[in-house]
Amino acid sequence: MNPTESVSWQNLAELAQKQESLHLEKLVDNAPRLPQLQHTLAGLYFDFSKQRVDTAVLNALVSFASEMNLEQRIKDMLSGRAINLSENQAALHAALRKGADPGAQVMETISLVQDKMRLLANRIRSGTWLGTANTPISDIVHIGIGGSHLGPDLVIRALSDHHTGHLRVHFVANIDANDLHETLEHLNPETTLFIIASKSFGTLETQVNALTARSWFLERTGAKQDLHKHFLGVTANVDAAIEFGLDPENLLPMWDWVGGRFSLWSAVGLPILLALGETGYDELLTGARLVDEHFATTPLERNVPVLSALFAIWNYNFLGASSLAVLSYDQRLDLLPDYLQQLEMESNGKSVNLENQPVNYHTMPVLWGGVGTLGQHAYHQLLHQGTREYAADFIMVAADDRGHAEHHNWLCANALAQSQAMAQGVTSASEPHRAVRGNHPSTTIIMDALSPQQLGAILAVYEHKVFCQGVFWNINSFDQWGVELGKKLAIPIFSALTQSASPHQDQQAQDAATQSLIHYLLQKKV
């Protein structure tokens, strides 16, 4: 269904026109509206009171969700129906944390893989997994990219206070050799274990980095017979992994019904299990499962992921916001904007609807962000006095779990002050250069503590928000065909740069502008 043809969409458009003169300064000071805009969930506090909505808008948004048949679509996803229509696949990431019920057969398959994953992790963590020199593993190098990298990297960095054991975990994603070189420079190949994570086992960046890592190991040990002691694989392409040299016993499967950007709950999350141990890892899954249960059973008007998605639709499609700034007021969450960029923009950066027709409305805007208070001395100037419309998510942690009260209080004060300034602004008739317009919507999310459960919960909220937005925009949130074009085009360019193609083929393959850049690079290589 085209959302713009719904009765609710037309109603929302009329409300948006009526509210052009209603400033957030008045809304945020209206105490009676607070209870319907503040919610707790799994150790998280969601404050939507600085969204530009009143009761009429909130009711119209909930009606829109109903008109778009959201409740049935939620049931379809959590029961394992093939909602990824272009690939005829289900989207069962919630089943990996027991937050969905796609049937006994799928759940048994998941259980078998998780049991194997835990067994491998226990051997590595306990020191019974020995390398080529019969010594325990000290360092884990996870090689992946995109969804096979961003989730585990975020979780391990964010939960650094919850690491147990002796293992050091490193991540390599960029095909830039400097990424791998700087990681391996100070590691001992005899005590290093590589995890190669790639669904296809053919992703260019991961494949090149894995081959280089294997060469690094062999050049320094000469122990080809011990490759199986230093390489694990997480993939759906078992044959390619075995051809690479991986032992079948060291492979953990991925499935087509888990997209890469939703895969940290799968065996891709092995580094998380290695770093946190079983208790911490299970708490992460529990936090996400609590959100799954809330998402499946809570009425739309109190359903946190649903409300998050509805306010996003209101901001993007009716109030003209062209970006979402994710502002993390905790240094340990510095990777959260990067993670959410892929989750939201790769999922909902679409221009064709479920009927393969061009959409006549905007879908996902640009998501960006950073860490407070650093951003306040950089891009917040644009946020406060620039000309663009935007929305913002403020992420805070209530607990001062490192015993630095003054630092923590100033951090929290700055987060609240920034959201207040974005909402209220300030006028200055005598000095216009000091004026701040305000009236920019934001959501404040407070984590009781930066713990595995709370982190799992907040990530699950964003996942379900993405799904709901896809329903509202009538698009497929679970494919990503747009990323394939650049990969395809890179192949003949690589051949040209390595001069493995004939000059005639080279000229035929490229446009004049790209051809001139190739020639410039070739000249500089001489």
Provide an overview of this structure.
- With 526 residues, this protein is α/β, with parallel strands linked by helices.
- The chain is built from 18 helices and eleven strands.
- A six-stranded mixed beta sheet has the order 1-2-11-10-8-9, with helices on both faces. Strands 4-3-5-6-7 form a five-stranded parallel beta sheet, with helices on both faces.
- The longest helix is centred in the middle third of the chain and has 28 residues.
- The chain is globular and about 75 Å long.
How are the secondary structure elements laid out?
Elements: H1 7-18, H2 24-27, E1 38-41, E2 44-47, H3 55-67, H4 70-78, H5 104-126, E3 139-143, H6 150-158, E4 168-172, H7 177-184, E5 192-197, H8 204-221, E6 231-235, H9 238-244, E7 251-253, H10 270-297, H11 304-318, E8 323-328, H12 336-348, E9 366-371, H13 380-385, E10 391-397, H14 405-424, E11 442-447, H15 452-473, H16 482-497, H17 503-509, H18 512-525
Parallel strand pairs: 3-4, 3-5, 5-6, 6-7, 8-9, 8-10, 10-11
Antiparallel strand pairs: 1-2, 2-11
Helix pairs in contact: 1-3, 5-10, 6-10, 10-15, 11-15, 12-15
